[in-house]
Amino acid sequence: MPDDAENAQDDAPHHQSSDDTVDKPLRPWNYEAGSYRTRQLIAVAALVALEGLVALGAGIVWIYLTLTGDPTDETASLTGAVFVILAGLLLLRMGFGFWRVDVWPRVPTIVIQLALVPVSWSIAFTLGNTAVGVPLLAVAIVLLVLLFSKPVREAYNRDV
User: Fold this and answer.
1) Helix (H, G, I), strand (E, B) or coil at 30
2) Domains of the chain: which residue ranges?
3) CB atoms within 10 A of CB 78
4) Contact present, 25 and 12 (Cβ < 8 Å)
5) 10 Å Cβ neighbour count for 152?
6) pLDDT tens-digit profile of 56-96?
7) Beta bridge partners of 23
8) DSSP collapsed to 3 states, 57-85
9) What number is the average pLDDT over the span 139-159?
10) Which residues does 120 contact at the CB level (< 8 Å), separation at least 6?
11) pLDDT of amino acid 15
């Protein structure tokens, strides 16, 4: 008697390959825990969650500094801090989505990392804050390389 994982795999939508001999599932809709979680996907999940934790911490510190200091525009400063906190929460959720091998976090993560490259470059080399900019740039580039790596693409059955 076949187990539930095999039955669930048979129920998933399939994609006919160009040679019409291989029938691959489009996505691991139902999967055994960790069966599609490659090392690269685990690294992506960890790095995205780490970005989220850093953003969350930075937002909380920003709020503290705004409330205890003397900002030129308190409303704008608090708005920026709340935005960074929300971005951190979103990144944490996307990291969890990668851990679950969900499809939805891949494209937003690519867009965020592509946006972070020029921002982190500017922070590091235009503003001269290499302690912040260089690690941001390194993580963004590593994540982009991992997201387009063959094992991650195969986990999502994507060509690109």
Assistant:
1) coil
2) 1-36, 37-150
3) 15
4) yes
5) 20
6) 999 999 999 999 999 999 999 999 999 999 999 999 999 99
7) 16
8) HHHHHHHHHHHHCCCCCHHHHHHHHHHHH
9) 91
10) 132, 133, 134, 136, 137, 140
11) 46
